[in-house]
Amino acid sequence: QLQLVESGGGLVQPGGSLRLSCAASGSTFKIDAMGWYRQTPGKERELVATITTVVGSTNYADSVKGRFTISRDNTKNTMYLQMNSLKPEDTAVYYCNAQASGIYFTNGVGASYWGQGTQVTVSS
After folding, report:
1. In whole angstroms, what is the distance from residue 40 CA to residue 38 CA?
2. Cα gap 17→37, rounded to integer Å
3. DSSP-assigned states of every residue in the chain
4. Are 110 and 101 contacting, i.e. CB atoms less than 8 angstroms apart?
5. What is the number of other CB atoms lying within 10 angstroms of the CB of residue 23?
6. Which of 10, 44, 65, 92 is the least buried, fewest Cβ under 10 Å from its Cβ?
């Protein structure tokens, strides 16, 4: 089992900054990669950024490149999303995700775990 707990969401003015945190607990040794996703009413959940556990390779959605930075502290089993130059279009519920390696499952298929989500609202 793997548990994800998010924090850091809230209300911020356009151009402001927020830092989201996601603390993982349980079978954290199974995690291959983690990421942030977001969803707004009327839209499908979309990828924001991902980061691998071992190497720390990152990937970003085009809409957030240059503004958001994903990072992680493997010792603390915590992932972060630093959001700068926030825009009203960034308003969404942000979800933490962890991908568990398939080598820990008899069928060789990995598993995906989700946090509860945290609301980010960008408005003046």
Report:
1. 7
2. 17
3. -EEEEEE--EEE-TT--EEEEEEEEESGGGEEEEEEEEE-TTS--EEEEEEESSS--EEE-TTTTTTEEEEEETTTTEEEEEE-S--GGG-EEEEEEEEE-GGGSTTS--EEEE---EEEEE--
4. yes
5. 17
6. 44
Task: Provide the CB-side half-sphere exposure for 34 (13 A, CA).
Answer: 30
> What digits encode the pLDDT tens for the residues 7-40?
999 999 999 999 999 999 999 999 999 999 999 9
Q: Taking the alpha carbons of 99, 17, 19, 11 in that order, is the dihedral positive or negative?
A: negative
In percent, the amount of the chain with pLDDT more than 70 equals 100
**Total Cβ atoms within 10 A of residue 96:** 25
Instruction: Give me the residue label for tokens 């793997």.
Output: 2
